[in-house]
Amino acid sequence: MSEDSASAVVSVDAGAVVSVDAGAVGGVPVLRVGGEIDMGTCDVVRHALLPWLDGASGGVVVDLSGVTFLASSGLELLIEAARRADRGGVRLVLVAGHRAVLRPLQATNLDAVLAPHPDLDGAVAAARTASGATEPPPDVPGPA
C-alpha cells in the first residue's frame, strides 16, 4: 500500500512523549499515535485527533500500535472520538493488537464497541469498505 504522511513528536513533560502522525495508506486517512496516552498527553492527542475527524468522510483509521500506555483519559478520548465520528457519518476503525492497548479496552468492554483490528492492513480494508471503495487508488497518476 502506498503511504503519505506528516508527523509531529511532542514532548509533554520530563520523559512523557507522544507522537501523532497523519497520513494515508492506500487512499484511506490514517492517524498514527505513539507513546503514552495519559492525563499529561491526552490533550495533545485530542487536539490532533478531533479536528482530523471533523475533516474526514467515509472510513478512517486510528493506529494505536505505537501506544505504550493507555490510561483512562485515553479511553475517554477514544469514546469521544467514536461519538464524534458517528455524528459526522465517519467510520472510525482502530488498530490495536498489543496488550498495552487491548487490555484497557477489554477491561472496560470497549473492545466490543470499538472493535479494534490487530493490524493496519485489516483496519485499512475495513475503513475502505466503509467508504464504499473496494480497491485502493492506483499509485501512479492517470493520463493527463
Summarize the structure.
With 144 residues, the protein is α/β, with parallel strands linked by helices. It has a single domain (3-129), classed as STAS domain (Transcription Regulator spoIIAA, 2-Layer Sandwich), CATH 3.30.750.24.
Tell me the layout of helices and strands.
Elements: E1 3-13, E2 16-25, E3 28-37, H1 42-54, E4 59-70, H2 72-87, E5 91-95, H3 99-107, H4 110-114, H5 120-131
Region (Disordered): 125-144
Domain STAS: 18-127
Biased composition (Pro residues): 135-144
CATH superfamily: STAS domain
Shape: globular
> Approximately how much beta-strand content do the residues carry?
25-35%
Radius of gyration: 15 Å
- The CATH topology comes to Transcription Regulator spoIIAA
Report the CATH architecture. 2-Layer Sandwich
Q: What CATH first level would be assigned?
A: Alpha Beta
Got a strand count? 5
* Biggest sheet architecture: 5 strands, mixed
Measured as a percent range, the helix fraction is: 25-40%
By helix and strand content, what is the structural category?
alpha/beta
Number of alpha- plus pi-helical segments: 5
The number of domains is 1
Poorly predicted ranges (pLDDT <50, ≥5 residues)? Answer: 9-14, 136-144
- Spell the H/E element sequence: EEEHEHEHHH
Termini gap:
23 Å
Average of the residue pLDDT scores: 85
Strand order of the largest sheet: 1-2-3-4-5
